[in-house]
Amino acid sequence: MSKGATPETITSLWDRLGTGTGTVLLFVVLSLAAWSFLALNLHQTNFSGGAEGLGFLFDAAIPPDMSVLEVGLRGLVETLYIAYLGTLIGVTLSLPVSLLASRNLFPWYVNVPARWSLAGLRVLPSILWAIIFVILVGTGPPAGVLAISLYTIGFVGKLEYEAFEGLDNEPMEAVGSLGASRFQVLRFVVLPQAVNSVISQAVFMFEYNVRHAAAIGIVGAGGIGYYIIGYLDFFAYDRVIVLLGIVFVVVVVTDELSYRFRSFFTGNAGTSFGK
Amino acid sequence: MTAPSPPPIRCRDLSVGYDGVPVLENLSVTVEEATTVAIVGRSGCGKSTLLKTLAGILEPLGGEATVLGTTFPQTPPRGTLGYIPQSLGLVMRGTVLQNVLHGTLSDLGTVRSFLGRFPRDAEQEARAAIEDVGLAGTEQSRVTELSGGQRRRVAIARAFVQRPRVLLADEMLSELDEETARSIVNCLCELQEGTGMAVVVVEHNRDIARAMSDQVLHLENGGIQERIEPTSTNHPDTQQNDV
């Protein structure tokens, strides 16, 4: 079983809030917040020009220029392709690495390097990977697919090894002691038990990557972001707002579809508070 | 003249436990071919820990446990050891047939393993094992659809299908009705006669333990409190009813 914050530990922390330890904890949290606020000079921020800027933006963007809709939809389709391919490649490649990274499946000298590799891929956000690949392979969708794939390996790989570590060890021990090899235990016990969780994470990652595939276009890695930055350069806010609207609708739809799809695989149809 | 083969299980001054803390110490037990040793004792006395150590899942804390000529961290040749854990260790998302087929994995090659394709004879043996434990007709049922007793029988079929030389069973007969338990014991006896299998069972019910075994080990206070040989003519336990 993986160690972490269980409902019991959360409840016990909540119960402690009224005690001396809780008061000290609250004091530390608020002190750090105050320190951060002062360190960033947020108290000196001048918001007075904000309203004026908002007015300018509103005038420039409204009414939206709907003639850009066709270009936006073309960019959107490209974004979806990038997100889909990046997710598929990333999830496929993350599986063997995450198996190696699981503490309950492999010894430390295997899982520590595997974990470090995954952590290394997560160090850079997908937009920075996109900048690197734009330099390496040039502007366009290939850089986007490579950036999304690499970040997906690091991100979903972590979710996967945590899922593997949360599995019941008894079936692995039982089948292993019957003479199955390590590969057979992974193939016939670990993956069938974790398959729903892996699919759910892949769907979540696709939803996440749709948003990021839209953003990485800003640095030239293809997709709708490429058009957004192009129009921004020419201050064509009336066109930018149409493209942002398309991204917003797609993110909301993907989010809803992803939730329903994941609920189907995890058997969690919804949360029922207060029952 | 050939030397007699060593016993399938031999423990000398064996200490077992978790995280360096011994639960049982200085156990010396020998299980000969075609014999059954039953382990009884209160909950938490170390019965399952001993079985896990013999199965190679836990490292002995001291002494030596030799199973089929190998000692930890070496493992017995693939397919020679059958283990039924207390919690059964079934793949709950799998079907009955898939779970029983897991008992034949030691004979499955790498390519077939990768593809998940079992040979026809392995499937026939698995179906026969399922029939032996009285679950014919449930081959394609998911384990989650079965009762507790039926699940236990799936775990038994999975251990029986490979005809092991050593069987380690943790509360194999719990949750089973008397008739099913009897048929499982009969099945075990037939297998033992045919293969000379050595059996170690953890059993809560002392009557069942006496009835099905050649030796009963009563564990208590971190060691063997009592050794009972039910088949011995001068032992009062011989008077117990069979199950």
TrEMBL record, chain A:
Residue spans crossing the bilayer: 20-40, 81-106, 126-151, 210-229, 235-254
Compartment list: Cell membrane
Gene3D superfamilies to which the protein is assigned, alphabetical: MetI-like
Keywords: Cell membrane, Membrane, Transmembrane, Transmembrane helix, Transport
Listed PROSITE patterns: ABC_TM1
Residue ranges constituting the ABC transmembrane type-1 domain according to the UniProt record: 76-259
Record membrane topology: Multi-pass membrane protein
A molecular function GO annotation: ABC-type phosphonate transporter activity
Organism domain of life: Archaea
GO cellular component terms, semicolon-separated: plasma membrane
Signal peptide: none
InterPro entries: MetI-like, MetI-like_sf, PhnE/PtxC
One Pfam family of this chain: BPD_transp_1
Family: Belongs to the binding-protein-dependent transport system permease family.
PANTHER family recorded: ABC TRANSPORT SYSTEM PERMEASE PROTEIN P69, PHOSPHONATES TRANSPORT SYSTEM PERMEASE PROTEIN
Name by which UniProt lists this protein: Phosphonate transport system permease protein
Origin species: Natronorubrum texcoconense
Automatic annotation (TrEMBL), chain B:
Listed transmembrane segments: none
Catalytic activity: tungstate(in) + ATP + H2O = tungstate(out) + ADP + phosphate + H(+)
SMART domains (alphabetical): AAA
Keyword Calcium among record annotations: no
EC numbers, comma separated: 7.3.2.6
Pfam families recorded: ABC_tran (PF00005)
Biased composition regions of type Polar residues, renumbered to the chain: 230-243
Domain ABC transporter: 9-241
Region (Disordered): 224-243
A molecular function (GO) term: ABC-type tungstate transporter activity
Keywords: ATP-binding, Molybdenum, Nucleotide-binding, Transport
Membrane topology of this protein: Peripheral membrane protein
Domain of life: Archaea
Subcellular location: Cell membrane
Gene Ontology cellular component annotations, sorted alphabetically: plasma membrane
Main subcellular localisation: membrane
The family this protein is said to belong to: Belongs to the ABC transporter superfamily. Sulfate/tungstate importer (TC 3.A.1.6) family.
Subunit structure: The complex is composed of two ATP-binding proteins (WtpC), two transmembrane proteins (WtpB) and a solute-binding protein (WtpA).
Protein name (database record): Molybdate/tungstate import ATP-binding protein WtpC
Source taxonomy: Archaea, Methanobacteriati, Methanobacteriota, Stenosarchaea group, Halobacteria
